[in-house]
Specification:
This protein is α+β, with helices and mostly antiparallel strands and about 170 residues long. Helix content is about 35%, strand content about 20%. It has a single domain, classed as NADH Oxidase. Strands 1-2-4-3 form a four-stranded antiparallel beta sheet, sandwiched between helices. It is globular. About 35% of the residues are buried. It binds flavin mononucleotide. The site of flavin mononucleotide has 11 residues, from strand 3.
């Protein structure tokens, strides 16, 4: 069923509980493909992804930081990387790509959740993930994204109203 993009944006929620099956390969490819259409500084497209299906590796990723535990039960973790030699804005670039990945996964009936690896001021968590997955040093590790068929249905989001969002109109 084709759904309007505004409806996709409004109904997306972070999903942290998943069914056991790994999502269909076609769906995984669609999510990655969607991510690649993100805007990036000078169109540098500095992102790369590691698809982690290995249960032991996923278990290790679920120990990246205190709020990574939900990954334990994810059938797939997509680790989003940014090559810091390709862009001065690797963090923003890669974050845009992850956002599109989250939206596309939702539009395909999958559930996903961002798990922060990048933390300003320290590369400790990034080092941990680099070591677990044997990732070269030029890649900054932005996030682990848990992905699977959803096993929970969170309530719709409460967001600020238009008048609260606009600081001023000049
Ligand atoms: C930069 C960023 C880092 C996040 N890190 C985590 C995380 O480490 N663990 C987690 O469970 N959720 C994480 N989330 C998901 C947020 O908790 C979630 O987006 C927020 O609670 C709003 O809920 P929603 O995604 O359903 O709208 C992160 C989201 C963002 C954008």
């Amino acid at each position: 069923m084709q759904r309007d993009i505004f409806e996709i944006i409004k109904t997306r929620r972070s999903i942290r509980r998943y069914k056991k099956e790994i999502p269909d390969e076609v769906l995984i490819r669609r999510c990655i493909e969607a991510a690649c259409y993100a805007p990036s500084s000078k169109d540098s497209q500095p992102w790369s992804f590691v698809l982690v299906k290995d249960k032991e590796k996923i278990k290790e990723l679920s120990k990246t930081q205190p709020y990574s535990k939900f990954l334990e039960n994810a059938p797939l973790v997509i680790v989003a990387l940014a090559d810091e030699n390709k862009s001065n804005h690797w963090l923003e670039d890669c974050s845009c790509a992850i956002m599109l990945l989250l939206l596309e996964s939702h539009s395909l009936g999958l559930g996903a959740c961002w798990n922060a690896v990048y933390l300003p001021g320290t590369q400790e968590r990034e080092e941990y993930v680099r070591k677990v997955l044997n990732i070269p040093k030029n890649y900054r590790v932005i996030a682990n994204v848990g992905l699977g068929y959803p096993e929970e249905k969170p309530l719709p989001k409460n967001v600020k109203g238009f008048h609260e969002l606009i600081l001023k109109v000049i």
